[in-house]
Write a structure and sequence with these properties.
By secondary structure, the chain is α/β, with parallel strands linked by helices. It is about 20% helix and about 30% strand. Helix 1 crosses helix 2. The longest helix has 18 residues. It starts with a strand and ends with a strand. The structure holds inosinic acid and magnesium ion (MG). The site of magnesium ion (MG) has 3 residues, from loops.
């Protein structure tokens, strides 16, 4: 069987940077004062690092890690919490930062457990969305790009822990 490798570039570094800057402005406008980001490891770390550097003024951040038990290119639907937050969300304006929303199962799980921690507001920012793959109707207020049902890597997104370091987003092909 042929090894899967990144083939066509779907989003260039430039396109991503421009969109991330727009998302940062929109989020800051919506939350001019308190703003706390919760990024989902590992995939969202590149997006978060670019996003926060485009945010004017004060913002804090924290990380969570989840596993969907999926080592292949499809999500299994089961979500497990691997790393919890270090700080309280009580009364904060919280924005979950995720790399991609696919079936929506991971984000639904995260939103449920974070909502139970009493944030003042809870919103979600995803760099990518594959609307045609949705299994649950999850609310995502900030979406960078809607893409077709193709498996993508780069800019934090991996295939079997590879390609997270690509500066652009590419389609995985054989
Ligand atoms: P969901 O629970 O099906 O929405 O899946 C979300 C998770 O699946 C993401 O956080 C990614 O880790 C992974 N995922 C879904 N689609 C892709 C993709 O195209 N490339 C890399 N990871 C993906
Ligand atoms: Mg992820």
């Amino acid at each position: 069987m042929a090894e899967l490798t990144p083939t066509d570039i779907l989003l260039t570094e430039r396109q991503i940077q421009a969109r991330v800057a727009e998302m940062a402005s929109q989020i800051r406008r919506d939350f001019p004062d308190d703003l706390h980001f919760v990024a989902v490891l590992k995939g969202a770390f590149v997006f978060l690092s670019d996003l926060i550097r485009q945010i004017d003024g004060h913002a804090s951040l924290d990380f969570m890690a989840v596993s969907s038990y999926a080592k292949s290119t499809t999500s299994s639907g089961q979500v497990r919490l691997l790393k919890d937050l270090d700080t309280s969300l009580d009364g904060r304006n919280v924005v979950i930062v995720e790399d991609i929303v696919d079936t929506g199962l991971t984000l639904t799980y995260l939103q449920d457990i974070l909502r139970a921690r009493n944030p003042k507001t809870l919103r979600t920012a995803c760099l990518l969305s594959k609307p045609s793959r949705r299994k649950v109707d999850v609310q995502v207020e900030y979406i960078g790009f809607e893409i077709e049902d193709r498996f993508v890597v780069g800019y934090g997104l991996d295939y079997a822990e590879k390609y997270r370091n690509l500066p652009s987003i590419a389609v995985l092909g054989g």
